[in-house]
Specification:
Length: about 220
């Protein structure tokens, strides 16, 4: 993860989450509660299997640390969700958080773990290690944000894919989620820069040039 200056959008130093907490990665879309705590999701994998981990970072009491560096002091895993298919964990880009709950959407876009370990060495794009496998359901894992306890009830839906969860709120005992969803996860391969340039050709290069010039 890299810090970004919120005013200038300048990229700052890289922060290795694994130096602070037992996770192998974290999303680029954390959530924040009213008290200033940060919530994120990461992965952990071992001989016991593959887990989706929910991370909580308490509000920093160090003002200088807030401004000058990423303060991960006190970070903890509040819930570890085992993958439904330990050898085929699901890809995710973000997660849902409401006032009292966190929802992780385990979707049928699967990762090839061997390629996941080697894709950088092999020089392949991240998309090459993903596969759309609609024989699996979409599973919604509901977790109490305050206790870290996962609901025993598994909520299932037809195969779908989602990248961004837009909003979530609680209304009269219901948890309402707004998400951008698609019925065919194969389309995720169309989002690579390589494919965009192949489709757009010179027009894409012109737009790219224009944007860089204006910036």
């Amino acid at each position: 993860m890299r810090r970004v200056d919120p005013q200038t959008l300048e990229t700052k130093e890289k922060v290795d989450w694994s130096q602070y907490i037992a996770v192998n990665s974290a999303t680029a879309h954390p959530h924040y509660d009213h008290e200033g705590a940060t919530y994120n999701m990461g992965n952990s994998y071992s001989k016991d299997g593959f887990f989706y981990t929910i991370i909580r970072i308490p509000p920093s009491e160090n003002t200088a640390a807030k401004e000058d560096s990423a303060d991960l002091t006190g970070a903890e895993v509040i819930c570890s969700i085992p993958a439904a298919e330990s050898r085929k964990p699901s890809y995710y880009h973000s997660f849902v958080m409401s006032e009292n709950y966190i929802v992780f959407v385990e979707q049928p876009i699967k990762l090839n773990l061997l390629k996941f370990m080697l894709y950088k060495i092999m020089g392949q794009s991240f998309q090459k290690i993903l596969s759309w496998e609609p024989q699996y359901d979409t599973i919604f894992h509901l977790v109490d944000r305050h206790t870290g306890k996962e609901s025993k009830v598994k909520y299932r839906a037809a195969p779908m894919f989602t990248l961004h969860q837009i909003n979530a709120f609680e209304d009269n005992g219901f948890l309402v989620m707004d998400m951008c969803c698609g019925d065919d996860g194969v389309v995720i391969g169309d989002f690579t820069l390589e494919n965009l340039r192949r489709e757009s050709g010179e027009d894409m290069d012109k737009v790219d040039s224009c944007l860089h010039h204006k910036i």
